[in-house]
Every structure is written in structure tokens, then in C-alpha cells.
Specification:
The chain is built from five helices and twelve strands. With 213 residues, it is mostly beta strands.
């Protein structure tokens, strides 16, 4: 589990591709301070397991499912990536609950300057948009952000200068692909709520039967 508060920008050193997999070697510093083999590190919003560790970086395996559902397959040596260590129970939850499991890949449709902020319009697939609400949370490349507003197929977020210099969004261009993770709680609520995926709809009869009326 992560918070979406990026700790540092790492650099891709090598990408070794298999038939349906890849091994990433990432140069880093901050996230290595207490890292050990088997730990989880969030790379551009994707939870990866440390399989190799040196004083200057770490390596992680990327399986076919991850390559299919994220933009990690497009990474090249020299690319910068957002890095975050797994949340400890004693840490402050500065962002929101991020699992590191990508729901889909979005596309930066436009970037507009508004005083100190940059406002990003991100086109997203339907399975992500269904959980988007105004002032709700969304993770973009592992960054916890607040939704400004949304339309049928896209949403907007606004980033402050600190976020721009501390994450990959500071140098993303229009047309870039970004990893998206919907709000975790919203997905569980939908799963359990009446009317979701074959469950009976919420009616007066249902409320009365369960003591709400």
C-alpha cells in the first residue's frame, strides 16, 4: 500500500525485455535507505518487487499483465520515474490509499497554465471514469491528485509548482500516456452496494427489510 506522495525521481538505467516480460534497473537514492530484496516500491504508480539491490539502485521484474495494463513497456534508459516506498503503519497518510495496481492508461489531452498551477486534462477509459467524482482522488503515474472536474471521457487535475518539480508531471507533454489508478474505496463500495454487478437494486422495500425505514 502507498499514499501517492512521490519520494523521489529515479532514472531508468536499463530495460531488458523478454518475450512477454521485462527487467527494469532503476537508479535511485532516497528509496534505497532502508530497502531490501523483496520490498515493494511504487514505480510510476505500479507496485513492483525489488529483486536486485545495489548502493546506486534496484532492479524489478515486470510481468506480461503489468506491461499490458500500464505504460511501463514504453520506458527507455534515461527516462525519469516516480518512486515511493510502501506505506508503514506509523506514516502520515498525506495523499490517499494507493494500491499500486493500475486500472488503465490515460492520455494527457491538454495542459493549461492557471497562475501558479498547471491544469491537466486527462482522457481516461470508461472503467476509470466510472469512479471519478469532483474533488475525489485519482493516482496519475503514482501521484495522489484531486479531481477538479470531469466530463464523459476525461477529467482535470491541477498541480502546484512543487508537484511539477518533484514528479514526472513537470515534464510530461500533451499526448503522453499516464498510468491511472481509481479510488480504492470507491471500487469496494461498488462491489458491495446493492445494484452493483447483479445485486438487487436499492429500493424502499430493501431499506425497510434491513431496518432503514
Amino acid at each position: 500500500m502507498f499514499t501517492g506522495i512521490v519520494e523521489e525521481l529515479g532514472t531508468i538505467k536499463t530495460v531488458t525485455k523478454g518475450a512477454n516480460s521485462a527487467v527494469l534497473k532503476v537508479a535511485a537514492a532516497t528509496v534505497l535507505s532502508d530497502a531490501k530484496q523483496g520490498d515493494s516500491i511504487c514505480v510510476n504508480g505500479v507496485c513492483l518487487t525489488v529483486v536486485g539491490l545495489t548502493s546506486a539502485g534496484f532492479s524489478a521484474d515486470v510481468m506480461a499483465e503489468t506491461l499490458l495494463r500500464s505504460n511501463l513497456g514504453e520506458l527507455r534508459p534515461g527516462d525519469r520515474v516516480n518512486l515511493e516506498r510502501a506505506l508503514r503503519s506509523s506514516d502520515r497518510l498525506g495523499g490517499h490509499m494507493v494500491s499500486g495496481h493500475i486500472d488503465g492508461v490515460g492520455n494527457i489531452r491538454s495542459i493549461q497554465r492557471q497562475d501558479i498551477a498547471n491544469v491537466f486534462t486527462v482522457a481516461a477509459p470508461e472503467n476509470v471514469m466510472r469512479y471519478i467524482i469532483e474533488k475525489g482522488s485519482i493516482a496519475i503515474d503514482g501521484i495522489s491528485l484531486t479531481v477538479v472536474d470531469y466530463s464523459e471521457d476525461s477529467f482535470r487535475v491541477s498541480i502546484i509548482p512543487h508537484t511539477a518539480v518533484s514528479t514526472t508531471l513537470g515534464f510530461k507533454k500533451e499526448g503522453a500516456k499516464v498510468n491511472l489508478e481509481s479510488d480504492l474505496i470507491a471500487k469496494y463500495v461498488e462491489k458491495l452496494f446493492p445494484g452493483a454487478k447483479g445485486k438487487p437494486p436499492l429500493t424502499k422495500g430493501f431499506l425497510a427489510e434491513h431496518g432503514f425505514m
